[in-house]
Design brief:
With about 350 residues, the chain is α+β, with helices and mostly antiparallel strands. The chain folds into 2 domains: about 230 residues, Rossmann fold, CATH 3.40.50.300; about 110 residues, OB fold (Dihydrolipoamide Acetyltransferase, E2P) (Beta Barrel), CATH 2.40.50.140. The protein is about 25% helix and about 35% strand. The chain is built from 8 helices and 20 strands. The chain has a 6-stranded mixed beta sheet with strand order 6-7-8-3-9-10, with helices on both faces. A 5-stranded antiparallel beta sheet has the order 13-12-11-14-20. The longest helix is centred in the middle third of the chain and has 18 residues. The two termini are about 50 Å apart. The structure holds adenosine-5'-diphosphate and magnesium ion (MG). The site of magnesium ion (MG) has 2 residues, from α1.
Length: about 350
């Protein structure tokens, strides 16, 4: 259908939108590359939908600009922006067939009957709904309806596709399957895609880059790996992944949890002073007392409080400095190297230098 060359970059600059005294978009700037899959991720009410609707043309910003392919579109009406949209609710026409729903954007654009038939056929092939073209919407499952909505958004070969939590009505298994299908579809059609979700795992799975939203501002933009591995604020660290923020004190060459100290290499660039260690369960290795750590690890003595079997892994909750609770996740497979301690035992928690990430205290 569409090639990657036809997709366009989006440039949002200093966008502001308020409802009364509520600054919903507080000076948002964001550059999305041509063909990129960009996800807006953030808690409910953080302004994701408002930004998407501003790009689509349904919300008028107070100030700032939006450019698509270098062209200022802030003043263009929605139907002149050439943007495909998939909403949270499917917003399909219940009394039309699948093919009629998908063909609708072409009919209102005055495309000829033959062309409509051909392009609807192609769009339905892409979402694997070809055989259901003549079905009524009422005879479809949730996942199939979502595919119809997708086909309708791509049928007029938009330069940009916007999706607002399109999978939130589906159950977990179907949602995970559709995540991969949408990713694949994006690869096929190449249109620049802006995708909204509040589900961090969905964002990590699908995106080229993620913009993390909080209260109308972008906290951080980066690849899934950058956002996950090197969060730049306590908010991002807590919102993405499973993490506890442990208060630590860092001086050159030393990291302390309460009165327990560990030596760091002087070359390690970390924020100094009072800050928080981003303690993701997978960064910890558990060592039996007396076992020496490998090179390039810091270790802390700890006492095991709870050992919880969770199927694929075992969560070991322990206490450092008699006060700070730390969760470590180890593999549950019997053949793994991981050591699973007993409740009440004394262990050492080890963290590789490269997994030590600190953020400012809130
Ligand atoms: P998100 O999509 O991240 O959940 P929204 O962009 O929908 O967030 O909303 C951001 C904030 O703007 C919320 O506080 C919401 O209540 C408010 N808001 C959104 N639309 C309107 C509106 N039409 N009138 C007044 N307040 C609104
Ligand atoms: Mg929303």
């Amino acid at each position: 259908m569409q090639s990657r060359e036809n997709s366009l970059p989006i440039s949002v600059h200093s966008l502001v939108k308020s409802y009364g005294s509520n600054k919903v978009l507080n000076d948002i700037s964001l550059d999305i590359r041509s063909g990129e899959f960009m996800t807006l991720l953030g808690p409910s009410g953080s302004g994701k939908t408002t930004l998407l609707m501003a790009i689509a043309g349904f919300v008028a910003p107070e100030s700032g600009s939006i450019k698509v392919g270098g062209e200022e579109i802030t003043v263009l009406p929605p139907h002149k922006r050439g943007i495909g949209i998939v909403f949270q609710s499917y917003a399909l026409f219940p009394f039309m067939t699948v093919a009629q729903n998908v063909g609708y954007p072409l009919r209102i654009r005055g495309v000829s009957k033959g062309d409509i038939e051909r392009r609807v056929g192609q769009a339905l092939e892409l979402v694997r709904l070809g055989p259901l073209a003549q079905r009524g919407i009422g005879q479809l499952s949730g996942g199939q309806r979502q595919r119809v909505a997708l086909a309708r958004a791509i049928v007029f070969q938009p330069r940009v596709i916007l999706m607002d939590e399109p999978l939130s009505a589906l159950d977990k298994q179907l949602r995970e399957q559709m995540q991969l299908e949408i990713k694949h579809l994006h690869h096929e059609i190449g249109a620049t895609t802006v995708y909204v979700t509040h589900d961090q795992r969905e964002a990590l799975t699908m995106s080229d880059r993620i913009a993390v939203f909080s209260q109308g501002r972008i906290e951080q933009i980066g690849t899934p790996e950058q956002i996950y591995r090197t969060p730049q604020s306590a908010f991002v660290a807590e919102f993405i992944g499973e993490s506890t923020l442990i208060p630590v004190h860092v001086q050159p060459g030393r990291l302390s949890i309460e009165n327990v100290h560990a030596d760091l290499p002087l070359a390690l660039q970390l924020m100094t002073g009072d800050c928080s260690l981003v303690a993701r369960p997978e960064i910890f290795q558990i060592l039996q007392e007396g076992v020496r750590p490998e090179k390039d690890f810091i270790t802390f003595p700890a006492t095991v409080r709870e050992v919880i079997f969770q199927g694929d892994s075992v969560l070991v909750c322990s206490e450092v400095a008699g006060k700070q609770l730390v969760s470590a996740r180890v593999s549950s497979t019997r053949g793994s190297h991981g050591f699973i301690p007993n409740q009440g035992s004394s262990i050492r928690l080890a963290v590789h230098f490269s997994d030590i990430v600190t953020v400012g205290r809130r």
